[in-house]
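Reply to dn_fold:

You asked what the input looked like. This is it:
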Amino acid sequence: MRVTRTDLDRGYAASGAFLGRIWRENRDVPVERHVGAILEAVDARLPARLAARTMQALVEAYARPALLVPPAVDEGARGALEALAGCGVTLCVVSNTMRTPGAALRELLRGYGLLDYFAHLTFSDECGIRKPDPEIFRLTLRAAGAPVETAVHVGDDPVLDVEGARAAGMRVIQVARRARRPEAALPDAAIPSLAALPEAVARLAGG
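and this is what came back:
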């Protein structure tokens, strides 16, 4: 079966609408469903026609663009993680994925030399839950064996991160590079970049 660029563009747009409906409910699906939605929009019978190895090749091609053109990393990230880990802080990741799945994000972190700092990584495409649902934070706390009373979430989004973590009972440090909107939820602390994170954590812990 021949598939044109126009067909693929239509399928990609349809998959975006499909994912948008799921994401609005703070839920998520594995990356295989992203690819399936594209194929179904081209031809509803197409996924069933493909051999397993072909489908896997399509999933890998879909998931890897971020590995080919990696995003920039906060320059203070490595120093902050090293300092916190050196103080005995248990570090975890809680992340909503978009088109790039958790498996690829792990590879990115490994490539930057950051992966080994984290005791646990929770990605929405793998657990089926998205921020700001407080359950994604609770899943991570349970996996890390960390009591909520001592936990601090770090993120930049006033709803996904600040309101979501607060609903789970956590304190929040917001990385706020722009002025805060008046209606936005207040974090427990705000920092301009991750370089300031160790000091902010120490302040919340009382020194």
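The longest strand covers residues 171-175.
Hope that clears it up.
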